[in-house]
């Protein structure tokens, strides 16, 4: 019985250690099957936008949502139209693409879709609801 108790305590300590390592860091790479989506904060996205002018800022909301306020220099391709229109508009599959939507759900879907289509440099920074910076209306 004592051996089982020691093993259980050791297992719990190992799990706590693993969980603490997982929660550290600012960005998260989620890999499922052959799809990798790099998630970054809106602060990191803003920094990239300010420093790198050779990026695409992709808004995947609806046209009405886009017209109500969007990030400067962003282009609109709704998540529903992405598979049909991405390759025509986003010609360079290695170009850095920063994707956002309203809350982060559609940007996550869009990031995975782009990755499946062969885009290699896609960053999901979630929803415009958490965007603390200026919008174009």
From TrEMBL:
<dbReference type="InterPro" id="IPR001763">
    <property type="entry name" value="Rhodanese-like_dom"/>
</dbReference>
<keyword id="KW-0808">Transferase</keyword>
<feature type="domain" description="Rhodanese">
    <location>
        <begin position="51"/>
        <end position="137"/>
    </location>
</feature>
<dbReference type="GO" id="GO:0004792">
    <property type="term" value="F:thiosulfate-cyanide sulfurtransferase activity"/>
</dbReference>
<dbReference type="InterPro" id="IPR050229">
    <property type="entry name" value="GlpE_sulfurtransferase"/>
</dbReference>
<dbReference type="InterPro" id="IPR036873">
    <property type="entry name" value="Rhodanese-like_dom_sf"/>
</dbReference>
<dbReference type="Pfam" id="PF00581">
    <property type="entry name" value="Rhodanese"/>
</dbReference>
<protein>
    <submittedName>
        <fullName>Thiosulfate sulfurtransferase PspE</fullName>
        <ecNumber>2.8.1.1</ecNumber>
    </submittedName>
</protein>
